[in-house]
Design a protein that fits this description.
The protein is mostly beta strands. It has one domain (7-354): Neuraminidase (6 Propeller). Helices cover 3% and strands 47% of the residues. It has one helix and 26 strands. The chain has a five-stranded mixed beta sheet, with no helix packed on it. Strands 7, 8, 9, 10 and 11 form a five-stranded antiparallel beta sheet that branches. Strands 2-26-25-24 form a four-stranded antiparallel beta sheet, with no helix packed on it. It is globular and about 55 Å long.
Amino acid sequence: MPLPVKLSCLLTLVALAVPACFGQTGTEPTSLRILEETPIPSLQIRSKCFRAVAGDGEFYVQTGAGKYTAVDLEGQTRIALDVSMVPATDSMKPEDLFVVDLAQDPRGGVIAPVWWNETPKKTRTGILRFDEHGDYNGLIWLDAGFTPTHVAEFNFAGDFLVTGYDPHSNVYVALFNSHGKMVIPQVLPHSNVNAAEGKQTTGQVERPSDQSIREASLIQLASGDDDAVYLYNPSWGRKVIRIQPSGHSTEIALPNPALQEGESALPLEMFVSHSNLYLHEAILNKGQKTDEVTELKRFAISVYDRYTGTLNASFRTESGFGATPVALSPREFYFLAAKVLPGGAWNFSILRAGP
């Protein structure tokens, strides 16, 4: 089964300088500076690389296969998810579950789409739930005819928005109820992709195209406290889709961040906090192509009104800040910074930053 593509496959979006407010003048973005650093002595990983996910008020760091640790903004850690806690059955062992992604549950804890190869020819998919104390809280099997890549939960309804792809190279944005039954197969009519490279000749086993896997993998979802899920797909242009539990959707256009002449932006993360929507992007130099980037050194954080898409602020950071931001307010950010120690272990700290 194909795995989600690497970050380097993200599309490059050419951005123009635009005005901003929150005390900024003209088109110049405001630079963030480090105000405080808090070491995290309880978190250390021996690995060539690691994965971190930003939530609302905390980070989630992958510390092993099927294991995530939650880190709050004061540097305190706890278990967020551990598949070894999932009860075994006659046919399934917990270690057989593959955790595809991780998302914050708006009501506390985390949820994660999982794959399980029930037989060599049959894969089951589901949503794994852990509560805010790090305890196993259920596995919901999905009635899905596609391979899930991301999931988000609606705040009040308890239903799920799930993205993914199928062997016919279709990309799905589907609505599921709290029991895992698919209610609306395609929330967004234009989300289908039927790439020519995904078509098979008679007698061949159908396989999803690289294009459909890439698109489904790069879609980002974020649960809002307004009982909506926000979806960002770089291949659809600079806009976010606000989706309600009924399946009704609204497009929100996002102005380009404040950039210098010739610069472009590579989208990294979209997240929602209170009434704001944030887009974290890497800044590329003039003529620089995504597939030529070996190291990301400069970043932009754009702060938008999540209902109108109005650009309220634009900030700049350097590579020393860390790659994963959490916003406490539109002018106060926290970053998870990581350094490699002698011997190859990763050491972490929380950076608090502001203008």
